[in-house]
Amino acid sequence: KGNTVYGFDSMNNYYDVNLKKARLSILKKYKNFKFSKINLEESKKIENIFKRTRPKVVIHLAAQAGVRYSIDKPEVYLKSNVNGTFNVIESSNKIKVKHLIMASSSSVYGANKKIPFKEIDKTETQLSIYASTKKANESMAHSYSNIWNIPITMLRFFTVYGPWGRPDMALFKFTKNIM
User: Fold this and answer.
1) Are 38 and 46 a contacting pair, CB within 8 Å?
2) Per the residue annotation, which of 69, 77, 109, 130 is the catalytic one?
3) What is this structure's pTM?
4) 15 an active-site residue?
5) Per-residue pLDDT tens for 95-137?
6) How far apart, in whole angstroms, are the C-alpha atoms of residue 61 and residue 63?
7) d(CA 117, CA 150)
8) What is the CA 144 to chain-centroid distance, rounded?
9) What is the distance between the alpha carbons of residues 125 and 142, in angstroms, rounded to a whole number?
10) Segment holding 103, helix H or strand E
11) 135-168: buried (b, 16+ CB within 10 Å) or exposed (e) per residue?
């Protein structure tokens, strides 16, 4: 519809980079798609890109994924998920985006026993570093929205899967082992 989409990815090796490159090759076929390899932790680079491109809407889906890996490498999650998300929110605020949409996780529900979960359920009992970083992002987004009146929508994704999904997800592991 005439909009330009700017995509960012660190292209880290948490899982096979070739899968990331294959996904990216599909997106690069669209003339209105622009890609930059960048870490969201690089605050000045993020701020400069936001100032240059002046997005009206920001859809922030980036994060270091994986609950189990967060146990071994918690600092990676703090840098990527908390610092990186802070940079996206702060840059969004500086240019006054019309809407910021962010990915959270069902992991924020933590030790809650009541199922099904609801958006109004308490989320103070995270069970992993990954979940704690996603909860911290929700809290930070709420504060920014309250103080600076930024419209922010937080999406709590549950197990996301599909033909281009992460190979460390249970669905892919089970399927591979069955085959």
Assistant:
1) yes
2) 130
3) 0.90
4) no
5) 999 999 999 999 999 999 989 999 999 999 999 999 999 999 9
6) 7
7) 26
8) 17
9) 18
10) strand 99-105
11) bbbbebbeebbeeeebebebebeeeeeeeeebee
